[in-house]
Amino acid sequence: MPELDDRVAVISGGLGDIGRACAVELARRGADIAVGDRDDAGRAEPLRAEITRLGRRFQFALVDVSDAEAVRRWVASVEKELGLPTIAVPNAAIVEMASMAELTSAIWQRHLDVNLTGAFHLAHAVAQRLVELKRPGRIVFIGSWAGHTAHAHIPAYCVAKAGLRMVCKCMALEYARHGILVNEVAPGVVNAGLSRSLFDKDPALTRRTAASIPTGELMQPEEVAVHVAHLCDPRSRNATGSVLLCDGGLSLVTATARQP
Ligand SMILES: NC(=O)c1ccc[n+]([C@@H]2O[C@H](COP(=O)([O-])OP(=O)(O)OC[C@H]3O[C@@H](n4cnc5c(N)ncnc54)[C@H](O)[C@@H]3O)[C@@H](O)[C@H]2O)c1
Fold first, then answer.
1. Ligand 1 closest atom vs CA 119
2. Which ligand 1 atom is nearest residue 15's CA?
3. Which among 27, 82, 34 has a CA at the least distance from the CA of 52?
4. pTM for this entry
5. Would you list the domain boundaries of the chain?
6. In the chain, what is the straight-line distance between the N-terminal and C-terminal CA atoms, in Å?
7. pLDDT per residue over 121-179, tens digit each?
């Protein structure tokens, strides 16, 4: 029997590359899937078809995670339509390139609003409902190696991901006694999102980047999803407040050697 049979998972930014891969992996393992994203752009229907083909139910909602009330309404609508969500994957994020010199307070604020506060909104809404109903659950934040490694071209993103790590730890501490385990998956360079659009345009950049990673390869979204699913597996009972770092060894390389 699939290990997540009949659980309901909510995934923010679930129409993006990594979010979609998480949706499919969790569905494959038996979960019904609720996806929220700030825009559809024709991406929800193909995902619905894929999840339905796997025999699982699917709900899509337009939601901006930076709006706490909208996230609460979304989580309530998921409960009504699919059942109580016991798995949350706060995954939605933006990344805009702007060095410290180029940063504006608007860019800074957008990163905090979406990547940090938005992730908190979803995790908090789901966890508080679980506490209220005395039900166990799992929260898996999608963090990044940028949460502990400074990147000169995306400082606002780095700061938001560093903050997210502490949200994860504080929630893990608070909710452990309620049977809610809270962890982070921290990928390195994934062939997804903004990185993918850069790699698609520039094969030489892809080769250079892969060569700078100790394992010699870019990570694929499906691999991130496997780590997320592992942390949702009911047989994993004691991992909480942890960071599952999957960066191909990037964090082990010194800053000087890392920069291509
Ligand atoms: N791509 C990488 O190299 C990489 C590496 C490490 C971590 N990550 C993390 O993985 C996660 C997914 O990134 P991805 O690479 O799949 O990017 P992506 O751009 O493909 O997906 C992000 C999704 O979030 C959605 N989103 C953005 N703002 C939102 C908002 N306010 N409300 C709701 N949805 C919103 C977007 O519409 C998009 O569908 C992010 O948390 C990112 O920080 C990515």
1. 41
2. 39
3. 27
4. 0.97
5. 8-258
6. 46
7. 999 999 999 999 999 999 999 999 999 999 999 999 999 999 999 999 999 999 999 99
- Atom 31 of ligand 1: nearest residue by CA position: 64
Substitution candidate for ligand 1 out of 25, 37, 47, 122 with most atoms within 8 A of CB: 37
Cα(19) to centroid(ligand 1), Å: 7
Any atom of ligand 1 within 6 Å of the Cβ of 187: yes
Q: Alpha helix (H) ranges present in the chain?
A: 17-28, 44-53, 68-81, 105-111, 119-133, 155-175, 193-201, 203-212, 221-232, 255-258
Tokens linked to 214? 């100790």
- Closest ligand 1 atom to residue 21 Cα is 16
The residue-averaged pLDDT of 195-207 equals: 93
* Nearest Cα residue to atom 8 of ligand 1: 144
Q: Distance between CA 210 and CA 207 in Å, rounded?
A: 5
- Between CA 95 and CA 179 the distance in angstroms is 33
Per CATH, the homologous superfamily of domain 8-258 is NAD(P)-binding Rossmann-like Domain (3.40.50.720)
Rounded to the nearest angstrom, the distance between the alpha carbon of 177 and the centre of ligand 1 is: 31
Taking CA atoms only, the protein residue closest to ligand 1 atom 43 is 93
Q: Are 75 and 85 in contact (CB under 8 A)?
A: yes
Helix runs in 188-220, H state only:
193-201, 203-212
pLDDT in tens, 168-196: 999 999 999 999 999 999 999 999 998 99
Please state, for a pLDDT cut of 70, what percent of the chain lies above it: 97
Cβ atoms within 10 Å, residue 16: 21
